[in-house]
Amino acid sequence: MVAEVVNQWAVFTIILSGIALTTGVILIKQGNREAHMRAMLAASGLATVFLVLYLTRLGLGYEKKYVGPDAWRTAYYVLLISHIILAALNLPLALVALWNAWKGLRAAGNLSRIDLPAARPFFDRHRQWVRWTVPVWLYVAVTGWIIYLVLGRYGEVIKG
Ligand code: HEM
């Protein structure tokens, strides 16, 4: 029961994280660097809360297995396994993106001077990394939500 609630909050935070991420991408496309930074810090904070809740749930020993139609079993596992692999990959991707943004900001002094020679290489690297970080993060958020919905309908609690 406790684990079920923890799980619901975990899903809620990761959905919010996906929304903050999408907002952050739109904001930087509009050139609003300050708001972009805040949205991305919010997205990262929410993803961290998610991770804590998820690990708590694992610690509580709560797990569900798929008991839905056989015709969908393979598709479900492909989704689940790709979700797990990319979720693990997402953490280092996001950390490197954040690290470069942070180093760039330190070198620039403020976000209106990102083209200073000392800061530019960090933001170039930031851009290179986020090309991968953003799609991976979105994939993980969306598939996590799908898995949650599928298990809500076709899941059976095996532990907890
Ligand atoms: C993991 C979190 C973050 C993600 C996923 C992310 C994502 C992005 C994306 C998608 C772009 C546009 C890249 C392009 O148009 O090629 C971008 C650019 C930018 N980001 Fe972030 N960002 C994150 C965190 C931050 C933070 C914390 C800051 C502030 C310190 C920041 C500052 C910037 C700046 C200044 C640009 C513009 C760079 C340029 O014009 O060369 N980002 N980011």
From TrEMBL:
Protein's UniProt keywords contain Transmembrane helix: yes
* Family matches, as Gene3D superfamilies: Cytochrome c oxidase, subunit III, four-helix bundle
Segments passing through the bilayer: 6-27, 39-56, 76-99, 129-151
Supply the alphabetized keyword list: Membrane, Transmembrane, Transmembrane helix
Q: Where on the tree of life does the source sit, at the highest rank?
A: Bacteria
Query: Matching InterPro entries, A to Z?
Result: Cyt_c_oxidase_su3_a-hlx, DUF420
One cellular component GO annotation, for this chain's record? membrane
- What is the protein named? Putative membrane protein
Query: Which organism is this entry from?
Result: Deinococcus reticulitermitis
